[in-house]
Amino acid sequence: MWLRIFIFTVLFNAVNAELVQLLAIWRHGDRAPGSLPYSKDQNGVTAWPRGWDQLTNIGIDQTYELGTFLRQRYVEGSQLFGPNFDKSKVFIQASDSERALESAQSVATALFPPIGNRVWNSNLSWQPVPIHSNGIDRQDTLLKPTSYDCPKYEKIKDDDQKMLASRFDSQFGDLFKFLTEMTGDSISGINADGLNDIQREIIHGLPQPNWVSGRVGNVSILPTIMDIKRQMRLEEFNSDEKGKFRGGYLLNNWLSYLEALRDGKKTFSAVLYSSHDGTLNALQSAMGMQNGELVPYAAAILLEVSRSSINDDLKVQVFYRNTTQQPPYLMEIPGCSNPCPINQFLNVYEQMRIRNLTEMNELCGNDKTTSTALNLSIFTIFSLFLAYYSC
User: Which superkingdom is the protein from (predicted)?
Assistant: First the structure.
């Protein structure tokens, strides 16, 4: 009975609502390791055509597929924005890492293929689409928050990870002793997660020594390494406090777009961000939407705002796309119905916001000089953006 009522309510809302805004963020596609996974590894940089840390052909394909999905859902489906890129409707930004910038380009290529008078070369189904970034060698609080200097967060995170690593040392001492011998590196609970890059090599068909697929006692080597990686990564985001430190600034950015829409101010139909697994983890943590799993390549969080055709109310839904095998998952919003009225959604997350870099630095325990310099830097970037946007 209640299930039928719920399904009817969802269908009723979908039929009687128009999608008016999308806020989306995705992880870049598959990439090469940042360096050799371990000292004795025989697979050098020549095994990776674009070099260490760079997007791979698999990653390009993954993000192109994501762009195709976005076009089908938001151009051909809901018609949130048109098939041609329009800077007044769509804004795309990436962190300054090459893999995030290239992933954004790949998504944009699939999302906005040239049609009609946008075709400039009949042999190419491609056109340039602007991708913004925070600029080289700058800390990116928005799209790479895990690289932002935050001493108070680092102290909490480091203490928690050390305790977790100590448990790993007790549980997997024999495994770490074996791995130390096989890899040529000193392996312990605090750094064993770095061996997860072996999995990247396997995905790309690179040869592996027999021990990688073996066991130490009753412990399977590679699955254990991957689970250690999962636990150590999620330890960075496993509390509201950590979620606010790392995800509060991005969450505030999204909430600001929602407020602009609610208040009738000029804003974008779609804001699209290309970033990193830690950025999605941080946002999920800040929003109370973690699922206990690592963020896969090209996974995306999709926040959709719909306007009721009956009473003009705005409501919010959040989806998570971490597989191509089924539609995105509808996420539960803590303390709110689904879809969630926009004002209630804003209230749910009010305490998790970090509104500016001054507030961020006060929270993190950074000195005032750092705060002032960073704010001036952001002001300069924002001024340049406004100048560009008004041209």
Answer: Eukaryota
- Residue 78 reports pLDDT greater than 90: yes
Pairing of strands 90-94, 300-308: unpaired
Residue 196 has pLDDT above 60, yes or no: yes
Instruction: State the CB neighbour count (10 A cutoff) for residue 102.
Output: 22
CB 156 within 8 A of CB 241: yes
Please tell me the distance from the alpha carbon of residue 212 to that of residue 390, in angstroms, as a whole number. 56
DSSP letter string, 169-226: HHHSHHHHHHHHHHHSS---TTTGGGGGHHHHHHHTT----GGGG-EETTEEHHHHHH
Rounded Cα distance between 73 and 88, Å, is 20
Dihedral sign for Cα atoms in the order 386, 314, 300, 111:
negative
Q: Which strand (E) or helix (H) includes residue 90?
A: strand 90-94
Q: Are 39 and 81 in contact (CB under 8 A)?
A: no
Where are any strands of DSSP class E within 327-389? 329-330, 340-341
Amino acid type, 126: W
Q: Give Cβ neighbours of residue 259 (< 8 Å, ≥ 6 apart).
A: 346
- In this prediction, residue 386 carries a pLDDT of 46
pLDDT at 190: 98
